[in-house]
Amino acid sequence: MTDKADLAKRTIADFLDRNAPAFAKLSDSLFYFSELGMQEHRSAKLMGDLLEGHGFSVDRKPSGFETGFVARYGRGRPVIAIHTEYDANPGNSQQSGVDEPREIVAGAPGHCEGHNVNAACMVSAALALKQAIDEHEFAGEIRIIGAPGEEQLISRPYYVRDGLFDDVDIALHPHILDEFRSDFGLIQAAAVSVDFHFSGRSAHAAVAPWDGRDALDAVILMDSGMAQLREHMMPGLTMHRVVTHGGEQPNVIPARASVWWYFRGPTAESVDPLFARARDVAKGAALMTGCEVETSIRAAVWPVLLTEKVAEVIQRNIDAVGMPGWTEGEQDFARRLQRAAGKPEIGLRPAITPFSGPAQQISASNDCGDISWKVPMGRLWFPANVPHIPFHHWAGGAALATSIAHRGGLAGARVLAGTVVDYLTDPALVEEARTSFRSCIGDTVYHPLIPLDQIPPRSLNAGLMERYRPAMEAFYPAGEPVFT
């Protein structure tokens, strides 16, 4: 590390230490907003206003995403992008600091993975970096990118398609976990998200059902056919669905019915044949019921590929910062939560996770995968939740507005900002990342999986937020975070 980098990292550490209350306020505000994908209006405004107020130029609606933002500071090369998500999930409202299922608002959305802490980590690191750039006169640009709708795998393929990463040298993605580590290799799956819309003919279900063509029957028959298809799928392929519309009332034959499927696989190429088989099954279901079927792609993402040399730089900063020293109260809460969730009662991890790899690919997906095939990308996993507690589960939200999330997220912000400093001060690291990236992707040529003319689904989740937001507003924290 150069003397200049060392001084900048001290500036960053001082900034984050004195702004720990502001970090907690930001993270908790996003937690209680609990906005679903494409409806993160308060979340995006709060973060955009903070960045703009500290001297960043802010584009509020990149690629047509009303709840996205791109904030820029600095000039010249390298261009280092930090991107993350801040959406919640439906039906996962959970009081924080409580070791039993207890909703904040019954049936409402909630953060049950920790995207609120992801966003606080990113924004706090950005503000600390701005101070370091000013004090130590670094060249280069930091680009802070808010990505709506990650739970629906939506925004970042649009950003890549529309050129937002064309001039980026390094991309970094902070994400909550119960560990402090980085890794590399092919880590998450490709996915295609598709609606199948069946159209039939309505009729009175008791008086003249023979006059109807039941679209819900088509959905059910498609489901049956997909169940039989599972036996013949290649290892590593997965699929799952929800019925999004099944009719209005039992005595009316449904003329319209829809089902939403996810298809996942280890590579971008592996998903398309599975989707093609599903289309054939849907056509067969339509034929059997006398209905018609149309398909509509909601999202399509590449698998996540993390560049080894970027992971090494992140890990060196993790080693330097170290795991937070958890209090006995935090350890006690973690063990109680693990007991309530039926998990091993190991408490919080006492040490960072040693660097190793390549990572084992998992079947989950993230829409940042497209970025990772465009530019060298690294992911920082920071320790702000409880070990063995699953995401998308009531217990996943129980620690997200506690000191565990605050202190783990602050440690993550320090590592994230320190990693950027290394790239701003050492051109050799940037070139090393490029070389490592080219080795990773080989002769693969990236191309968007989403249609080139597709526009974002702006109204997605609007109805759910309109239904629950009035009751949720009673729990919004008063005031806004103030970073100094």
UniProtKB/TrEMBL annotation:
MF (Gene Ontology): dipeptidase activity; para-aminobenzoyl-glutamate hydrolase activity
Gene Ontology CC annotation, any one: cytoplasm
A GO BP entry: folic acid catabolic process
Gene3D superfamilies for this protein: 3.30.70.360, Zn peptidases (3.40.630.10)
Pfam family, one: M20_dimer
Superkingdom of the source species: Bacteria
Stretches assigned to the Peptidase M20 dimerisation domain: 192-283
Protein name: Aminobenzoyl-glutamate utilization protein B
Organism: Xaviernesmea oryzae
